[in-house]
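pasting for the record
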Amino acid sequence: MQTFQIEKSGTIQVSRGENPRDLYEHQNQAIQALDRKNLAPFKGLLVLPTGGGKTLTAVHWMLKNFIDKGQKVLWIAHRHELLNQALDTVKNSAYHSTVQNVKKFRYRIISGHSKHDIPVNIKSTDDIIIASKDSLNSGLIYLLENWVNHAESILLVIDEAHHASAKTYRKLIESIEKNFTDRKKSKNFKMLGLTATPFRTEEGEAGLLKKVFPDDIIFAEHLRTLINRGILAEPIFESLETQLNFYHELTDRDIKSIEGFDKIPKDVAEKIAMSNVRNKQIVDHYINNRDRYKPLLVFAIDVIHAITLNEVFRSRGVKSDFVVSSIQNAGTGATVSPQENSRKIQQFRNGELEVLINVEMLTEGTDLPNVQTVFLTRPTTSTILMTQMIGRALRGTRAGGTDKAYVVTFIDDWENKINWVNPEKLHIEEDAEFIDRDKETAKKIARLISIDKIEEFARIMDSSIDTTELEKLDFLKRIPIGIYRFSILEPYESGESVPRNYDVLLYDDTEEAYDNFINDLETIFKLIDADDREELSEGELEYLLNIVKDVYFPNNQFLIGYRDGDLTNILRFYAQKQIRPEFLAFSEKRKCNLAIVARHIYDNSLGGRAKTDYVDSLWDNERSFWRVLFGSKLYFKKQLHIETCKLEGDYGDTVSTPPVLIPDDVPLTDLTLNEIKERDPFEYRKIKDAVFAKYSADGFIWCAVSKFKSQSRNDFQIDHIQPMSQGGKTVLNNLQVLSRKAHIEKTTLENMNNH
């Protein structure tokens, strides 16, 4: 019978030599921590930042402790790029110095991708299976019968483990573990999760992920440590808005294709690639910053764009070239061979080229230690691709790179139709643990909020849009008190699950309603039967949305920042994860009141040089939030001008809220709940959660003065037992939960007594 060689499965021959790649200190420390944990069954996490080598660390440890001892390994991820990366790392790490007792071992890579295998072909002789969770869920019976039942021990590795709380992940993990332990009567089952995204592990906030990985974090290293050690470079994010529109011709099908496959329609891509205005902006921006940007790696949209950009760079006297996959294009006449690509890459390494342009060729694998800057001239919906593109510039000095790296994004106007990945936002989300309530954490939260608010500032700068009503609002009301952050695994036509990040901004007007809604999600979901499903039908979403709007947001049309889509996404998230989204309180909001700055300028009649110096001092003050919040000095100055105009009466009957001066330091317990909420949303939520917990039992909340009980927070209010007017304090022992009816009756009685 005729046979053919395929790379979906096969044998990896162990090299007799020494592994040429040394591990860093933090990677060796991680392996030592894993070795200590490996003495007994465990389910824990390895947390390393992007660029910290979590895949390489896990592979080294896995090869030495499992493959080398004839034990089975199942490596699961949710996208085929992650699977390819894992397999490449396994192949490139199989040296005798790591794998000493076996000369070869079998692998199989499985996913819905055409170049990967399918579950039905799983063999009991496979030593390591690298597979997508969706393909394994659909072919679970083959995994269990052909592989799990033949294993004496199993290491289960979950890549991007912060997604493992999804129902489909949990179902898969539970099925493998239960089948293995039931049949083998063995407890030799171990599970390691890999993630770059820290999460809260405090008691009461651990949620479902802590249940999946009960041993919590086995080893973690922070991004800042790797930057300080010179392993990673300090990223500096910059952006340039092209002011060009490319969304007019997008159909709903185009949008779905872009978000599902990260492919811009050919006609739209061609317009972007051939835009003389846009290409000139890109090249001009480089030339204006040439000394600090070079050497520069450019990620172009497609081959045409790479060739066109290269011509513009060269016409301006820049030593540049492009590398793309082997092509012979009739339109451009360009032919590029692998040999030519290699030659150009070597020229770039040698410093003979200032700029190297590529089309998704140099996202990973190729050794380019000298990159100072990356230009992201193509947008992407893929967090993986964005991480890879950013990563090309983040090699630190100890790794042959630089101490600082520039990541420059060129932003076109897509009118919010596409959920493009923002590189700075992605970096903040992976970097910040959001547990320590310090100045730097507050700035990171402020920047996350700012990225979502930039569009509002941009609209105000656009003279063609009437934003008068928005400008009339008290500025502090337009600053959110916090943000909900969450990620949803969304299935697309490719058959794989694609992670999408979402944010919901909370304002003074919406915080209470959102808090009740979020805390009542479990009760809300009892209205439908979705226990065994992650995806809700359009009818179910519409049904739940209408109920939520009626009960929690009855006056939604008057609420700042309210959007139906935000409620829908939270419902979708809960359907998948069955946990509440993480809330980040912006406790420094009061320090962002631009009206106070305007009042200082107005009251002191600052003008000319004095005003300029004052504004510059605010912008340049590293302890302030202005640079973080606005991103652009132009936006800052424009908004300050608006606030000053309000004081001068240019907005008619608009009354700007004057500064509130509190000369005395007052203990937290002397403030009302609303005052605490205004000054420190984080503390306010802690107090509120503690009070509700005190009056909750068996899944119900109880009224302190009646027999009324309910599962919904929306039916209750928090009240002081001894009123503050009579010396009562805002402490847990003096706070109670009352039904809305009981609260009205109590308030009425107190008012009557006072009169």
